[in-house]
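Usage

Read records sequentially. Each one opens with the input sequence:
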Amino acid sequence: MKKTIVSVIAISCALAAFAARDVKPAAMAGAEGDALASGREGKVLIDQFPKTGQASALTAPAIQGQTTIGKCYQKPRKWLVFEMKYTTFVKWQDQLTFTWHILLESKSATEKDREDKKAPYSYYTTSVTYSNIPQGSHAASVVLPPSILERYGYAKAIGVVISNKNGDTLGGQSESEIQGIKGGTLWWNDEKIMSAKDNKTGDVMIERRQGLLERSKTIWGLVSPNDYEIVEM
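and closes with the structure output:
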């Protein structure tokens, strides 16, 4: 059963109005007015897209070694790992930039705190640019550390837009299990959603936060490194 914003807090009229719209983003549908590359150079096929909910929560790989302080946590902690598989069709692609949009649901947090007055949803975004991409199958990924999962919950909406070095949109996808935010839409560009407030309290529904990391900056950079191309710093 899909989650619903209404079950968390009264939804704003603006957010409800958006739910009724049938929006097809240029990244997925090639709408007029957006820069789109053509031919083989402009084709990137998404073979596997990250899943919402607990499916993206993984225990980090363990590295054996000595430490002077020992373990601070005795039980394994879960990370939110968003992994994507894609295919390119030219011999070499100079650059590809993946812009990620992640929406976490507070009520799904694993650590509850009644005194922690946080918005029902938390929004994270970052862009990762890979270079010298040969023709074939590759992976792209970003992660959120355990403390963010524990405090702000699981991902309930995920979006990715892929662009080349010229800024042309080559592809993208979005998935959502939130009523009022449809999958297959550029929901992060709609201010009616991103600035929605609760009708009763006036509190914001979505809080913008920092912390979404490119995988190579974490322990996950040691996992299947051959699947990933060079990250532009």
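Summary fields computed downstream for this record:
- Residues 3-59+78-231 form one domain.
- The first helix runs from residue 13 to 19.
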